Amino acid sequence: MDVAGHAEQAARLVNATVLDVDDLVAVLSERPALAARVTDRDCMLVRRLQRDLDPVFRAAAEGRDAAAVEALDALLAAHPVTPRLTPDPHAPSGLRLAVGGRSDAVAEQLLAESLVGLATLVADLGAARLGVCGEPRCSQVWVDTSSNRSRRYCSGRCASRVHVAAHRARRRTPA
Ligand SMILES: [Zn+2]
């Protein structure tokens, strides 16, 4: 199970604009088997997933680790996750351990993967590994699976925007 990948996918899902099936299919471009099964109901459920997960990232970003953990734990309790042995032609055993949700619906699968990915990251490395972009006009969330815990921005573009602004501010300030 790619738990780091599931945590990163959770952040991508929270950040995505999911108005219709095409939007969700675009988010799942690297998961063609899942993307092929997306329905309107999945889009509705993913928007609910976004509303549920967003407060976890906001609490972590504000340093309210206990609140982030409590919110994530409440979601785990409300949405039971089922481990499943899934065929995987690339694995030596031909199998891999995956997680599923209450039904085979794409959104339930995504929710199960998101919860397990985020919970594992928080349990292993702490709630500070979840956050919200430090660029003042950006509200995208991120997960930090790096070894040195260095992430502050959702993207390289936001990081350089902040660095350029700081550089300009320094130049305006007389020495
Ligand atoms: Zn950003």
TrEMBL record:
<feature type="domain" description="Zinc finger CGNR">
    <location>
        <begin position="129"/>
        <end position="171"/>
    </location>
</feature>
<dbReference type="InterPro" id="IPR023286">
    <property type="entry name" value="ABATE_dom_sf"/>
</dbReference>
<dbReference type="InterPro" id="IPR010852">
    <property type="entry name" value="ABATE"/>
</dbReference>
<dbReference type="InterPro" id="IPR021005">
    <property type="entry name" value="Znf_CGNR"/>
</dbReference>
<dbReference type="Pfam" id="PF11706">
    <property type="entry name" value="zf-CGNR"/>
</dbReference>
<protein>
    <submittedName>
        <fullName>CGNR zinc finger domain-containing protein</fullName>
    </submittedName>
</protein>
